[in-house]
Each structure stands twice: as structure tokens, then as C-alpha cells.
Amino acid sequence: MRATHIIAASAIIATALSTTATTPVYLQASKPTEERVADLLSRMTLEEKAGQLLCPMGWEMYERRPDGSIAPSEKFREQNRGKMPVGGYWATLRADPWTQKTLENGLSPAEGAAALNALQAFAIDSTRLGIPILFAEECPHGHMAIGATVYPTGLSMAGTWHPELIRRAGEEIALEARSTGAGVGYGPVLDIAREPRWSRMEETFGEDPWLSGVMGAAMVDGMQGRRGSSVNDGRHLYSTLKHFAAYGVPEGGHNGAEASVGPVRLRSELLEPFRHAIAAGAATVMSSYNSVDGIPCTANRELLTGLLRDEWGFTGAVYSDLYSIDVLAGHTASDRTEAGAQALKAGVDIDLGAACYGKRAIEALQRGLITEADIDTAVARILRLKFDLGLFERPFTDPQEATRRVGADSHRATAREIARQGTALLKNEGSLLPLDRKRLRRIAVIGPNADEQYNQLGDYTAPQPDDNITTILEGLRQAAPDVEIVYVKGCAIRDTAQTDIAAAVEAALAADVTVLAVGGSSARDFKTSYAATGAAQTDASHVSDMDCGEGFDRATLTPLGDQLRLMQAIYDTGKPVVTVYIQGRTLDMNLAARHSDALLTAWYPGQEGGSAIADIIFGDVNPSGRLPVSIPRSEGQLPVHYSRMSTGRDYMDGSGSPLYSFGHGLSYTTFDYSDLTIIPTDNGDRWDVSFRLTNTGRRQGAEVAQLYLRDAVASTSQPPMLLKRFKRIELNPGESREVHFSLGPDELSIYNPALRRVVEPGLFRLMIGSSSNDIRLKGEFTVTQQYDL
Asked: Pfam families this protein is in (predicted)?
């Protein structure tokens, strides 16, 4: 059945059902969701309930017929024609080397919509109760499917310090994924990242709980609609918060390793972004692979039920991470059946990987490990999502609409704006930047990240056509067509067989200025072809650039391969150098900090990254990005986040301070802070903080004003400073504006020894500035009564 026929048939069926007196309650759209859930649950067999808990991998669930149409695969039919049809699928439209979906054999947006329509039609027409499928897709910085917009990764998004811009990106990401039939988008990643050796730092919003929470809430608002109000409009979907919890501070930097953290720190810092996003209405959460204090998060009832549901009021569904239930077997469980029982009892509703629920849930019931009420509770949460999403009324999408929406020009513009605002200027010696096109004869563009498309996209990225990505080299050439631009790669990220430093030096010596692009890469090898068996067909001597991305944990932070040799050689020419780091973690930047005239970090800036970097280098855009993480001087400093208790303490053999501090970022103009006032309001329940911000330079620019607090004396030890408010303010030259922040119980609260969130009476110290180590204004105020939150 073709997609257009499916949509038309669905409309006819829905109309007929609405006028039929014998229509089951669960198929009556006018009935409240809870009545529909209860009615459908009462009609389901135990096997049908168990099937709803399953979420297998989806990219093998469709096949392309000789006539070009998309149909359910035999594997899909096997999973859904029996007594236990599957409730959901994950990553059906995912394309990457793992799934073996390429530009040649993968699905365009229209084909993707047609594929999910076909699977949905089978579920509705060929199963006893016709329960639609809940499709979940990866959406951390864009839908991980062919044709979708590739936005900058999490660190770059956080580097904008601009929540409304991130809300817009979330809305666009949701629109693209929903238009192809997805109902759940995995993202944002809210892990607090304080361990740069960890391979997934790039996905996060950085080291700070407040910044991550605000950005996470903004992304949720965009993906789901304001407080989830629009999730059933065909343009939004459910956001999945990852990874619950404490996943970003693994011992030794190893992905999934134990998190050594106590209950106060866990709540007050590592879980705060999730609390913000849950308050914003996030409908789904994903458990994490790691353990906290010896208890696996996927089997932690105190965490997944006691805190998440009972304390925070979360009413949605919890996914396991892929096979995170399976890994309980042999640790806290004797087998997968017992592992599934532990996870279900803890509060995990959906088994991503589908090996421990389903038939094993029924076996667990027979063994007395769970009750049918446990299954019913989880199934009800899943059905509630499906009803509220409108899947029973509108299970299909329009492939033509998917073509119009996915990869839209307006979405590319948002990606470019995030890359502009998320790139931080860390150094600008002698005001080398911005470069003046009219005075330049030749620019040398050098380095392993100057013209490698996938190196700037980050992990969780689908294959891309060449014309969809603008590299730094391409961006500079487009921005300065009258300037001669000479490109020499110089070396690869890791492969020393590609090194040609002599050619790079020759190009630098002959140029007026060099743009040197170095760093790292999370690029999986998209250019590798695959045999029918799935075996990679590649040169055995090939060394990929990948040094970051899930599973690529590192012991050191030094740029790999011959990059340091190349950098030193270019600096030794004595010619002006602009160094650009493209990176997924905070790499060693000491050499560049000492010798480069200008230094930028763009993290992974997405498909429009090259254009955005050129915009900054030539001054078409005034940089306003700020660091969402502290840049360490060495691995031996770790952890080095700004709010650590040991701030200010040096080592016997080195500095204890970061190379560049959290919140740091330069501009082509300057700003002055003055006239701080702190006034109690609302009978002393809140404090209005105001100050005057003035652009004292000659260019229009945006300043990110940052407010930090310290509870001077508290029942639990408090960091020397914690970010509690921030605002991005654009000002013209000479313009002055009064900036206001409102502080209340949420900003002033701490967790006490009883793990209660409270505001304790006492003195609070207030700091306002341009970064955590550039405080311009200080003040104090006193709270006179306690608040229990």
C-alpha cells in the first residue's frame, strides 16, 4: 500500500469509527486519555502487554522492493504477526557505518516517511488490537537520518549561552524527525561533563548544572512544544533526556564506568539539569549504563522511582539505554530474566534492545520476580504516550511534507547561527582578528581539520552529500573570493603517514596570515564500503581520524599524530597565525595559547561550521561564544571545573587553575559593568539584581553577563561560586542598558544533609562578570528565613 493510500484510508477509518456506537473507548478520540488507557489495557493479553515493553533496533525492519516502494521486511513481519507485537522501534531511519545505511542504500526523507508509514500500517491492520508503533530516533544535534540538518553538537550549543536559539533548534529537529514518522527523539544529553578523557563530552552542555539545565529545558520546549502542549500537532515529538544519571563523570574517563559521587553532590550538581528539564515537561528519560555507589542506574529504584517519579513528579516513560538491562546479568542478576525483573521493578518501562522484557517478562512473572501489576504500570505509561501523541488518530505522515520540511534552508540558517554564537574566541593578540579582506593578498589554510567534512560534524551524524557541508577552507574561499587562498593539509589527526610539514611551512611563509585548523574528530568512516556480509572493505593500513565519539575514551588530552609538530613549525615561521580547534573534548591548547596570535574553539560546528568560522574571522560576525567547560592545562589537574572545592590551589609542580576558565570568551568590542543594586522584593522572598552594561568599544557586539552565587555558611559544604543566572545582551557601540536578574528560592537552594532542597537563612555573596574568573561586580545580601522546596 502506498503512503498516500495509507493516509487516505486512515482518514476514512477514523471518520467511520468516530460515528460508530460500538467503537471501543480506546479508539474514541473524544475520551480522556486515562479512560482510553484503562480500556485498552483491559483488552490486552499478557503477551500483548509484554510486547509493548519492547524496543528493538529498527533499521532492518524495512526493505526496498524492485519497483522502488518501501515495505516491511520479513524480520519485521516475524516480530509482529504473532501474539506479541512490538510496541516500539529505535533508530529505524538511522544511517551510519554501523547500520550499513549509506547515501546509496539509505532512505531519503520521503522514503523514510513511506517506510514508517508501511510499518505503522502493518501494526494497525495486521495485529489484533491495531496498536500503533512508537518510533524513537536519535536526535542529539539533528535527526540522525539522511537529509536531516546537522546542527553543532552539545558543547557548541551550550557555548552560545542563548537558550532561545537552542529552543529554536529543538523545534526544527523535532519537525524534521516527526515529519518522517518518529514520535520520540533521543536528546538532549544532560550529563554534567567534568571528565574530558570521556569520549562523549561533545554531546553534553558542559560542566555546569545551571547552564546545562537551562539549555536542556530550552531544547525540551523546542522538541515538545512549550511544556509539551503541542506534542500532538504533527510538528513536535517527545524528548528523551540522557543519561540518568551521573554518566559524565566516569572513573578514569572510561565510558560507562562507575561514578564515585555521594548523594548530596549527585542531587545538587549532577541531577540538576534533569530536574530543570523534567519541570519543562520532558516526557521520556533514558537510564545510563553506569553505577553510582555500586548500584546500577538501570536497576536503581530509589533513583528511577523514588526521586524521578515520587519526588519530581515525572509521569512519562523510562527507556533503558541500549542493552543496559542485559549488562545487569552477571553483576546484580543471575540471568537476563532476573535482570529484566530488576529493571522493571526499578522503573524502567521500555527495554531498548528488547532482550530482557517480552517473553522474559512473562518468565519473570512465572518465577515470581514481578507481578502483572508491574507490567501493567509500565504498559500504561507507554500507551499514554501513544494516545497523547495522537498516534491512534494520525499514525501516518505525508512523504511530500517530509521532503519540504527536512533540511530546510531556514534550518541551515539556524545551524549556522548556532555555530557563530557557539564559537569562542579565546585569544586575540594585537587584535589580529578580524582579518581585513581588502588588505590581504594570500591566506594559507593548513591543518587536518581545515577541509575534512566529517571531522566538524561530531558523533551521531548520518552520511552527507559533499555539497551539504561547508568546511573551513570552503567557508574562507566563499567569504573572500578576491583573496588567494592556498591549502596544505600538513598532517592528519592520527595518521603520521600523511604528514608533509615542509609543504605547510612553505605555504605559511608565502602567505600574509595562516589559518591553522587542528584538534580532533568523531568521524566514523563513512567512505568505507561494505560487503553484503557487513564486512568493511578498506585498506588495512588506513588509520582513521577518530579520536573522540562514543567509546573513544582517551588517556591523554594531547593532540594526536603529528599535530604538535605541525603547529610548532607554523608558529616558528613568525607569520601571523589564527588557530582554530575543532574538537569534541577539551584538548591540550597550551602550545596554541603561547604562540598563536588568535585562538578559536568551535567544538564540532556542524554542517555550516566553515561558513560560521569564516564569518568570525573576517568580522562579519562579532564573536560572542563562551566556554561551557574549563580548558585544563594538563590531565593531572582533572577535575578542573570552575566550581570545584579546591579552586585557587596550585600544585607543587604546576598551576591549579585552568588554561581558560568556564564562561571565558572574547569579543571584538569591550564592555563595562557598573551600578550594581540588590533589592529585596515580594516580602523578601526574591531579590532583584540590576546593573548597567555599556558597550565601550567601536563595534556592535553581544556580551554574556554571568551571575554567580555562594551561600557563605551552609549545612553542607558549598562551592566557592555557582552560576545561577546569565543573559546574552546585544549592544551597539556606546549603548548602555540596565540588566535585571531575579533571584528566588530556586537559585538560592541547596541540598541539606537530609537530602532536602532548602533555602537556609544567612549571607549570600553575589558575583557578576564576563566569566567565572573575570568578575566585575560583587555584592551581598541576607536571607532571613528558611524555605523548604
From this structure: Fn3-like, Glyco_hydro_3, Glyco_hydro_3_C
